[in-house]
Amino acid sequence: MGKRSNGEGTLCKRSDGRWMGQVTLDTDGGYKRKTVYGKTQKEVKEKIAELKSGCRSGKLIETSSMPLEDWMQLWIANYKPDLKVTTRESYELYINVHIKGSEIGKIPLSKLKTTDLQRFYNAKLKCECKNQKQTLSPTTVRYINLIIKGALKQAVNNRMIGENVTDGVVLPKKRKVEIIPLTREEVLRFLDAAKSDRLYTLYLLEMMTGLRRGEILGLKWEDVDFKAGRLKVIHNLYRVNNTDKDAESKYKLVLLTPKTESSKRTIPLNQFMVEELLRHKKEQEREKRLYGEDYRDLGMVFCKLDGDYISPREFLRQYQRLLQKAGLERKRFHDLRHTVASLLINANENPKVIQQLLGHSTISTTLDIYAHVMDQTLNRSVDNLCNQLELGKE
Fold first, then answer.
1. CB atoms < 10 A from the CB of 250, how many?
2. Are residues 206 and 219 in contact, defined by beta-carbon separation less than 8 angstroms?
3. With the C-alpha atoms ordered 170, 368, 184, 375, is the resulting torsion angle positive or negative?
């Protein structure tokens, strides 16, 4: 039945036709008996050899029966202490909503398979998961996989599992969202409608720089160099969970550094924009005098009447009202950023310059996002070549 040969351990063929092997290993934690299975005797011998080799090199995999959801919580707490607060909150939200309490979350790490994850992601895309009210976008599913992949990578490093099963998953393709920027005429209509708004300078600055919402709301006067005619993007205004149990609100606004190094950048200001910012600063000083001791001076370029941070949500509501006033359709504030890029592309600006202005991490990001706009520019370029060569003329 069973036999021992050359220290290979105990080998036997089971009634179901498979082979089983057992070997005793001398580990740091004492002697441990391991069992492996295979279709052939050779396969089992190879697995036993791998176990013994791993034991000698200190790389023996101690498969863990810890459920995925428990490991995800431990991973966040113990191995991701330096995550930016907004990223941490995002990770925790996705873990709690999509993994904790789910069928996939209850599977032990040692038994989790690529097929389990594939079924889980497919179900998310089709709204077939328990307590899920709508289908998830490919972007959301890819983000969930990113989090799980990171957690399992650490589990592999800890020798809790032998492989990262996310490596074999087939993820849904990203959906390319069609970007419809404002036209030059629409920009002028919008700015005309915003002239009477106290944040008119903010919208002018946006059309000169393409700053992200958090970047422009997080801009401080100390970041603006009037003499040199430039501003530095080194802050970002975020809405985060309020950990103070006695606080009236569940959320609070905080200034943090930009998410990526490429987002930290210096942007030139022309004389027109410098003068507009100085005018805005003068008006802000008047508001400060009116509020007196009640003014909360945080040094912000754009703030509420009392000097406090502008809530991004309140700001978006006001922005939509200005669009309506201008007779324009609803647009994301981010679309103004796209508009800046589109206007520059149509003006034949170098894409590398646009990348640096907008703070994209790579030139490919700029080219991918604005490919449809560049197609129009390319068409004009071909027409220009044709005209220069006087082709098509009789």
1. 7
2. no
3. negative
Examine the pLDDT at 27 and tell me if it is beyond 70.
Answer: no
The pair of structure tokens assigned to 61 is 């995999």
List, for residues 36-94, the tens digit of each pLDDT value: 778 898 888 888 887 777 666 655 556 678 899 999 999 999 999 888 888 899 999 99
With b meaning 16 or more CB within 10 Å and e meaning fewer, what string describes 165-195? bbeebeebeeeeeebebbeeebbebbbebbe
CB burial readout 118-153, b (16+ within 10 A) else e: bebbebbeeeebeeeeeebeeeebbbbbebbebbbe
Any idea what the Cα angle at residue 145 is, between residues 144 and 146, rounded to 5°?
90
> How far is Cα 16 from Cα 35, in angstroms, rounded to an integer?
16
Write down the mean pLDDT value for the chain.
86
pLDDT at 170 over 60: yes
**The dihedral sign for the CA sequence 337, 89, 83, 296:** positive
DSSP lists the bridge partners of residue 25 as 32
Record the pTM: 0.71
